[in-house]
Design brief:
- Helices cover 58% and strands 9% of the residues.
- It is α+β, with helices and mostly antiparallel strands and 423 residues long.
- The chain folds into 2 domains: 272 residues, no CATH class; 85 residues, OB fold (Dihydrolipoamide Acetyltransferase, E2P) (Beta Barrel).
- Strands 3-2-1-4-5 form a 5-stranded antiparallel β-sheet, with no helix packed on it.
- Helix 2 crosses helix 3 and helix 3 runs antiparallel to helix 4.
Length: 423
């Protein structure tokens, strides 16, 4: 059967398919760019200047001198014998050579952070210190704050980039550029625009559309399958947003589940419910584009391998692949949310609460809604994208049939067997 059809380049899509695709993609790009310019933050996101000028500097620990730890006063309502004493390795002083700041090269002595959860610093560690000008506060000018993780993170980032490029080659390079564009849009548009008071849901929608258009076309090329993935992602993302609004309203969630969201709502007057909606949309985009591009590529490859497939045959074959993909992605989503919330789950479990009380807790309920809505959007993405890609591929096949006999693909006389029939 394989000898009866060509394995050369796929036939070009019909003019009608290309014009119909452009009629959707071009207005989408224009609207996204216009909204991006309109919502782009032009004012500072700061709500006021800090009363104390603090500066972060780096240094290297050259010597550690440990001393006996002082006794800790008992916490309110907790016996002293139930308290965890500080680690002896966290009590004492450290001699640090500054590697940045206006006193770079100078050696200073700073007290080690102490307490039950304090980090342990040893000789040779790179550290971050907080510098407070003399006379501003009644504290030492230099205080050790944290480990300096710049070098380890740089090495991990370099290893990640090298692995992506080594495996993906030029496609890996474009994927890294797309990743950089995602970070730039998140850090320079989405977050600042929300902090300046723009509606979080609108900002997240525009930002997600801009990320989707830039990353998908940059990574996968300006092709009809990529365009079908873009349209499928947009439709699924819109459905996810609508489901999110309905689910959050039904569950009476206000988006305030921790100190961070409470502070943002009180100090910055940010709509925390809209912020929750924005987080669902942005989080869903990362998985949606994976599903849609996979489905579009699957349909294209099936159509190229079996030019005689009809729309129904292409759709059914690719949908079977999509169902397998969705089954694994659903478990991935649930495990990702469970892993991120594991400390919270442990804290709730030690409270001796029933399963009903745990599941209806606002924090857990918020994650349940996020998981369910995101999964429903993914499920919808498979048939939508598969249908669009199958329609474009069958239109290409019909266009190829109208070509002169010498330009047509040679087709078998008997119906082709479905290679995925046994899935």
């Amino acid at each position: 059967m394989g000898a009866n059809h060509s394995h050369g380049p796929a036939a070009p899509h019909s003019r009608g398919t290309m014009w119909a695709t452009l009629a959707v993609i071009v207005p989408l790009g224009v609207v996204t760019l216009t909204a991006l310019i309109w919502l782009w933050p032009t004012q500072s996101t700061s709500i006021g200047q800090p009363s104390v000028s603090l500066q972060r500097v780096t240094g290297t620990v050259t010597q550690v001198t440990l001393t006996s730890c002082p006794e800790q006063p008992p916490a309110d309502g907790q016996p002293s014998d139930q308290q965890s004493p500080p680690d002896p390795a966290t009590c004492g002083d450290a001699k640090v050579e500054l590697t940045s700041g206006h006193e770079s090269g100078r050696r200073i002595i700073a007290q080690l952070p102490s307490g039950p959860t304090a980090q342990i610093f040893t000789e040779g560690d790179d550290v971050v210190l907080i510098y407070t000008p003399k006379g501003v506060l009644d504290v030492p000018p230099y205080q050790i704050s944290d480990h300096d993780r710049s070098s380890p993170l740089g090495l991990l980032g370099a290893a990640f980039a090298l692995a992506v490029v080594a495996f993906g080659r030029w496609r890996g390079v474009t994927a890294l550029v797309g990743l950089a564009i995602t970070f730039v849009l998140l850090l320079t548009f989405v977050i600042p625009a929300i902090l300046t008071g723009e509606p979080p849901l609108l900002v997240a929608t525009v930002g997600s559309a801009a990320i989707m258009l830039a990353v998908l076309y940059l990574t996968h090329g300006f092709t009809i399958p990529t365009s079908m993935a873009v349209v499928g992602t947009l439709i699924s993302l819109s459905l996810t947003g609508a489901l999110s609004v309905a689910a959050i309203s039904l569950a009476n969630l206000n988006g305030i589940t921790d100190e961070s969201s409470f502070y943002l709502g009180m100090s910055y007057r940010i709509n925390t419910q809209g912020l929750l909606l924005a987080s669902i949309i942005i989080g869903s985009l990362g998985v949606l584009d994976d599903v849609t591009t996979t489905q579009a590529a699957t349909v294209t490859e099936l159509s190229h391998a079996n030019p005689g497939y009809t729309f129904g045959q292409l759709y059914r074959a690719a949908a079977r692949v999509g169902r397998v993909h969705i089954a694994s992605v659903i478990n991935t989503i649930i495990l990702a949310y469970a892993g991120a919330s594991l400390p919270l789950l442990l804290l709730i479990s030690v409270g001796d609460q029933s399963a009903g009380e745990v599941l209806t807790n606002p924090v857990i309920a918020q994650e349940i809604v996020r998981s369910i809505v995101g999964t429903l959007g993914l499920i919808a993405a498979v048939p939508i994208t598969t249908a669009l890609a199958a329609l474009a591929s069958t239109r290409r096949a019909r266009s190829d049939d109208s070509a002169p006999p010498t330009a047509r693909h040679r087709r078998p006389r008997e119906p082709l067997a479905d290679p995925l029939a046994n899935w």
